[in-house]
Design goal:
Rossmann fold, 25% strand, 10 helices, 273 residues, eight-stranded mixed sheet
């Protein structure tokens, strides 16, 4: 897929996901987010950049860690995600947090201006993740820390058939290379190529827990490029997709619900002094 087209698909897909994403995914991603924040070791007064911040799930947790003297800036390609995070910041009177729509591949931020950069499950969606990591390196202060997470090995993520199911309906790859950074040491190696020294890597086994098949399907089809494709499906295509996805995750049925296995990869890397 052309990079510019992929970028537009991501932007409008995540705009569509803004309303439903947090209630469907907040608890499901908790294991990844907790590991990221632990590895980041945020300290009071630090300046933090959250790239691909979405509705601010990680941003607000980071703000608690850096306290009143700290600052968190969240950026995301989706304007609606940014609006949602900004509304929450105003509602909570979280004046230390600010949000802006921005491309991870071209951060409109000063060089060497952040102590820590976080990127939670965002790099898989960037057309050029090498450029995004280079930008994250650029905005880090000397000795600053990057902590990023991605989905792990395709074979360890039970939701993986989702992409084939959607691609069969739209006849196009909606998310190429989605699991690329989850293979082996790929994420750590990408950080190293960006000039960052990897200091920790974790593989975390978890599950996506759903009350029933309808909840599992809604969560699967709500996010990013899948959401954009889904919005254009005819009713018959939607029914086919739901049926196929429920069949794909049937091995992990747990009573009326599902416990779908997944893997996260979390890496911490550091900029040179």
């Amino acid at each position: 897929m052309d990079a510019r087209l992929q970028q537009r698909v991501q932007r409008y897909g995540w705009d569509l996901a803004a309303t439903d994403y947090e209630p469907l995914w907040n608890a499901q991603l908790a294991a990844s987010h907790e590991a990221m924040l632990e590895l980041a070791g945020l300290a009071p007064g630090e300046r933090v950049l959250d790239v691909a911040c979405g509705t601010g799930l990680v941003s607000f947790a980071a703000l608690e860690a850096v306290g009143e003297r700290g600052r968190v800036v969240g950026v995301d390609l989706s304007g609606r995600m940014v609006e949602s995070a900004s509304r929450r910041a105003r509602r909570l009177e979280a004046w230390g947090a600010s949000f802006a729509r921005m491309d991870a591949q071209a951060l409109e931020l000063p060089s060497a201006s952040f102590d820590v950069v976080l990127c939670a499950l965002g790099l898989m969606y960037v057309p050029d993740w090498h450029a995004a990591l280079a930008e994250m390196r650029r905005v880090l202060k000397p000795g600053g820390r990057l902590v990023a997470s991605v989905w792990g090995e395709r074979a360890r993520c039970g939701f993986a058939p989702l992409f084939e199911i959607v691609d069969d309906e739209v006849r196009s790859e909606v998310c190429p290379l989605f699991f690329g950074l989850g293979r082996g040491d790929a994420l750590a190696a990408a950080c190293e190529r960006a000039g960052l020294r990897t200091s920790a890597q974790r593989r975390i086994a978890s599950t996506l827990d759903y009350a029933d098949g309808d909840e599992a399907c809604r969560a699967a089809f709500v996010g990013g490029p899948v959401a954009l494709a889904w919005s254009r499906f005819a009713p018959a295509a939607r029914e086919r997709a739901f049926v196929r996805y429920r069949e794909a995750i049937d091995p992990w049925r747990d009573g009326a619900g599902y416990r779908v296995p997944v893997e996260f990869v979390v890496v911490r890397a550091q900029a040179g002094e």
